[in-house]
Design goal:
Glutathione-S-Trfase_C_sf, four-stranded mixed sheet, alpha+beta, Glutathione S-transferase Yfyf (Class Pi), Chain A, domain 2, Glutaredoxin, 2 domains, transferase, 8 helices, GST_C, Thioredoxin-like_sf
Amino acid sequence: MKLYYSPGACSLSPHIVAREAGLNVDLVLASTKTKKLQDGTDFYTINPKGSVPVLELDNGQRLTEGPAIVQYLADLAPASGLAPAAGTWERARLQEWLNFITSELHKGFSPLFTPGMVEEAKPLFRAKLLERFKYVDQQLEGKSYLMGETFTVADAYLFTVSNWGQYVGVDIAPFANLAAFRARVSARPAVQAALEAEGLLKK
């Protein structure tokens, strides 16, 4: 399998999941700015949406959208515990978290990364994100991870998205439960390996 990624982007989430699951995935760097691969290939020929991540199977089939990809990867390695079994109440809870992260957090950051966004609007987007992170912080009270004591694909996604605050002025440091969660996830060997592979570890 191949995973088309850009360092630190939302593709970090399936990258972490693949390593947590013990799956062999070849990383293919795709520039989110130039929309080119390192060999000059037009990334739009890989994904017409022009965004990472893209998971390409050995048979050539491609899957896009991070929440779909991480669940697919988790189901390839059920013993990893990265996702509860399909059809269970717990799996619905996991999907609830994935949907919240993708719609309320991930997309909440988009305007702050958009070139030309008027400065006057940015405080509104930051405030909304902080409101959402406050909710997450409350939900992490007394728990190691979003679903309890088991690390799941939702945690990989939350960790990835919560990294972005430092680049756009969204200060999540005051949220103690979230800070403890981020430290806990960051220390996981698979996460360290993914960060190192993407050149994101500060030496």
